[in-house]
Amino acid sequence: MERNAVISKDKIKIAIIGLGYVGLPLAVEFGKKYSTLGFDINSKRIADLVKGHDSTLEVSDEELTQASKLIYSNDVEQLKQCNVYIVTVPTPIDEHKQPDLTPLIKASELLAKVISKDDIVIYESTVYPGATEEVCIPVIEQNANMLFNKDFYAGYSPERINPGDKEHRVTNILKVTSGSTSDVANFIDALYGSIITAGTYQASSIKVAEAAKVIENTQRDLNIALINELAVIFDKLDIDTEEVLKAAGTKWNFLPFRPGLVGGHCIGVDPYYLTHKAQAIGYNPEVILAGRRINDGMAEYVVSQLIKKMLKSKLPVSGANVLLMGLTFKENCPDIRNTKIVDVISELTEYEVNVDVYDPWVSIDEAKAEYDVDMVIEPKENHYDAVIFAVAHEQFKSMSEQDIKKTLKAQHVIYDLKYMLPPSIADIRL
Predict the structure, then answer these.
(1) How confident is the model over 395-407, as pLDDT tens digits?
(2) Residue of 82, 136, 266, 333 with catalytic role
(3) How far apart are CA 387 and CA 109, in angstroms?
């Protein structure tokens, strides 16, 4: 690539495609220094941001006002003014647990309509190694009638956003970067380096950057799967898992993972991207898939524990009222993407249990639209035979024993899934 094909700093005009948990924080940071267009096909999302509010709560209203060079739009024509396009759309899995690249393909088709010569496209969405160059780039080439690394260029810089985490933000998390040529790689690295205070790490290729991202969450998934399996074993041995983990944690290199439901947009999804690619090249990834089977089966195990305890306590199961505290996939954020709480609901209904779901972080309308879950505004008093504390929201952790028990009948079961209650209160802990 010729040096003069790299965009000069004073002419950089950035477009962020997708303004969700990943795209908006990135757009805000770039919008403090560069002319930036935040683009999303969701007109309501754009309207809210124009009014100065982020419904995901990742960016405060005050932070939005600090991005003086950032504008929002769902007008495709406005994208044509830009020359650096950063794609931050979701990469989910389908009902068969296979990668669903539809959002990425549609974003690439969109870019093909607006891209100009020497423009640079950077993908941040989690994919399997090779997806950027094997799937996304050909879509742009074919639809724009342009040649990769001659008429336009590309890079990959995996997102590392942790929803709800106010300590680890986009600027203070080290950023992996890559580019399709050495000059483009240097340009992309410098571009991110201008806003990322934690620094950058330039990978040797796009495929290396893609692989690095997908194994980050695969590693966490496997570690949690191990602890989940240990929790099942220790339960059968009548040993408290938390006490075991505390004791083992006194060794300096013991990793502090805890058992639980593995959902969300990353850990419960990304491993399937890697296993898909592995199987496509003829290798069966046994360890990764074993971990996925364990973690995907935890909702069934949790409900079976609860039902057994209810039966031992002489509580009726069919027609029982059970309160689920929490719907989000993790604590202290409104994110319900791929939440495994819905699997718990599904398992409970198999036993003809009446389930109420309460989560102060979640929009009642969004829960209904996304999962057909009718949440309660407040838990009912003296109503429930059992309660499952499924998400460790601060509001739940700060509840007193009196607050907890006022929703329960005299005879009841309390299941503390997240070790947030004193052991003396909980009847079951994972």
Answers:
(1) 999 999 999 999 9
(2) 266
(3) 47
Which pTM does this prediction carry?
A: 0.91
State whether the Cα torsion 43-104-102-293 is positive or negative: negative
Strand order of the sheet with strand 408-416? 354-358, 321-325, 384-389, 408-416, 428-429
Name residue, tokens 């201008």: 194
DSSP 324-341: EE--SSSTTS---TT-TH
Per-residue tokens: 89: 């759309």
**Token representation of residue 348:** 């409970």
Residues 220 and 145: their CA atoms lie apart, in Å, by 41
Active site residue 136: no
Q: 416: phi > 0 → left, psi -120 to 50 → alpha, else beta; which?
A: beta
Q: Which of 297, 351, 345 is nearest to 323 (CA)?
A: 345
Cβ atoms of 86 and 17 within 8 Å: the answer is yes
pLDDT in tens, 191-238: 999 999 999 999 999 999 999 999 999 999 999 999 999 999 999 999
